């Protein structure tokens, strides 16, 4: 199973989500913008992408579009995270949505539902 890729331009969110998922037993990778996310996905195919909607360089919808055009990435599930109103992002072809702010239980439940519980070491 590839890592859960956490993509957000707010370092505090990336760090908190990474720590939480790592503590749960998931392998994680991080990116602070959309371009960096695509570079990371070129190196290692993620099992899930937690993707912020609004970011510099390349926003969430731009990353999602690039993933859908890439045969290697088009079936990777994406969860869009956003503080924007739902009408901005609810139409996007995503596996799930996390309105910001979200709580730990919401996040873990969505990750478990999409990719299952992590393998225990």
UniProtKB/TrEMBL annotation:
The modification 4-aspartylphosphate is found at residue 52. Keywords: Phosphoprotein. GO terms for biological process: phosphorelay signal transduction system. The keyword Phosphoprotein applies. Residues 3-115 form the Response regulatory domain. It holds the Pfam family Response_reg. It comes from the Bacteria. Coiled coil: none annotated. PROSITE patterns: RESPONSE_REGULATORY. This is Response regulator.
